[in-house]
């Protein structure tokens, strides 16, 4: 990416963040928590994305479907909330919650961000945005993956569930839950099938002793 493009994107990004932050009294303090949350997520993810660019991919199932689902998630968890918070375009669908209820959003967001960081750290080189098997792919069954198979999705569920408490709007507040929910329920069967094909009995044994989104008791 050339320098001019980078500066342009940086300026656009800073302007949008500035407008959203400046309108916090209209949108409520939850909007600032939301802004912090969506700021921290790429900070956690980008170093992993950069390092894993060098991976050699040997399998990439459901590529077309994955692209569509990820675009929908981007609209649901970023575009719609940003447009609403920056312009008030969706204000007709606002709802009101008692002041303190916004704090429930933080109670979801904080463990969500922790899990988001921890799952990227534990998957390391084996992580990818879309469904992929890389050359030399290792089945990770330690760290947070010891008892949970999809902790990154647990993290994104928590983060998505925080949003309706932070952004009090039926569309911008719930779009992340709806779009991520769609991705989750469509993707997980394909992901588990891909892992089973790759790791066979090791993956079956791993499934038997772990839970999908929280530990098996
Ligand atoms: N579903 C996992 C990972 C999401 S990232 C979670 O929620 O934490 C998706 C990629 O992670 C997939 O392309 C797959 O190759 C890889 N992956 C998922 N589980 C894995 C595991 N236990 N070990 C190694 N790679 C894994």
Structural class: mainly alpha
Shape: globular
Cα-to-Cα separation, first versus last residue: 49 Å
Series of secondary-structure elements, N-terminal to C-terminal: HHHEHHEHHH
Number of strands: 2
Q: Show unreliable segments.
A: none
Question: What is the average per-residue confidence, as pLDDT, rounded to a whole number?
Answer: 95
Q: Count of helical segments?
A: 8
Hetero groups in this structure are: S-adenosyl-L-homocysteine
User: What percent of the residues sit in helical stretches (DSSP H or I)?
Assistant: 55-70%
The main sheet comes to: 2 strands, antiparallel
Strand content: under 5%
Question: Order of strands side by side in the largest beta sheet?
Answer: 1-2
Radius of gyration (CA) equals: 19 Å
């Amino acid at each position: 990416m050339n320098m001019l493009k980078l500066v342009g994107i940086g300026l656009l990004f800073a302007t949008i963040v500035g407008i959203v932050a400046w309108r916090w009294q209209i949108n409520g303090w939850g909007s600032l928590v939301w802004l912090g949350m969506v700021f921290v997520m790429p900070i956690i993810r980008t170093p992993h994305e950069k390092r894993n660019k060098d991976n050699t991919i040997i399998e990439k199932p459901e590529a077309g479907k994955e692209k569509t689902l990820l675009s929908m998630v981007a609209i649901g968890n970023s575009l719609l909330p940003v447009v609403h918070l920056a312009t008030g375009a969706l204000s007709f669908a606002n709802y009101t919650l008692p002041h303190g209820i916004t704090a429930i959003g933080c109670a979801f967001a904080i463990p969500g961000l922790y899990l988001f960081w921890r799952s990227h750290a534990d998957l390391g080189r084996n992580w990818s945005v879309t469904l992929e098997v890389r050359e030399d792919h290792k089945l990770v069954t330690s760290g947070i993956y010891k008892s949970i198979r999809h902790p990154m999705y647990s993290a994104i569920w928590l983060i998505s569930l925080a949003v309706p408490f932070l952004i009090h709007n039926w569309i911008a507040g719930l779009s992340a839950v709806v779009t991520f929910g769609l991705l989750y329920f469509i993707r997980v069967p394909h992901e588990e099938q891909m892992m089973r094909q790759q790791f066979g009995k090791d993956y079956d044994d791993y499934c038997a002793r772990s839970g999908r989104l929280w530990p098996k008791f």
